[in-house]
Design brief:
Strand content: under 5%
Shape: globular
Number of helices: 8
Number of strands: 0
Length: about 150
Amino acid sequence: MDVLIYLFENYLDADEEGCQDPDEVRLELLEAGFPQSEVNRAFDWLETLGEMRPVQYAGARSFRIFSLEEQQRLDIECRGYLLYLEQMGILVSETREIVIDRLMVLQDEVISLENLKWVVLMVLFSQPTEDVAFARMETLVYDSFAGYLH
């Protein structure tokens, strides 16, 4: 997760003056001290995210039942936060499913609320039609961490 956040803050969310060469980025990450295996997993995670497109659901109202594995990895606080984001209109059922998919492939045994927020932000960033939701989530993420910076 640390590699993903580092990539997002330094490369993905930066103004696009030109695409960075992936090999150069990998080298920079290794020089920054990230292990090769984590760098490879982060690139695989991002590549899969880039290939994902939301599945269109027939009904506007849906009810999500979490599997046992999801319940074990996403505690009640995380599941509640996902519901909150849907109620706020930041996530729709389609993007929620991408978020859950990307969370479940992380190596963390239990997903923290902070990591969930970053994954939501990355998923929304990857979806071309979610600019407004991304901006709202970006405010939530960076405002919640502002207290730690001072």
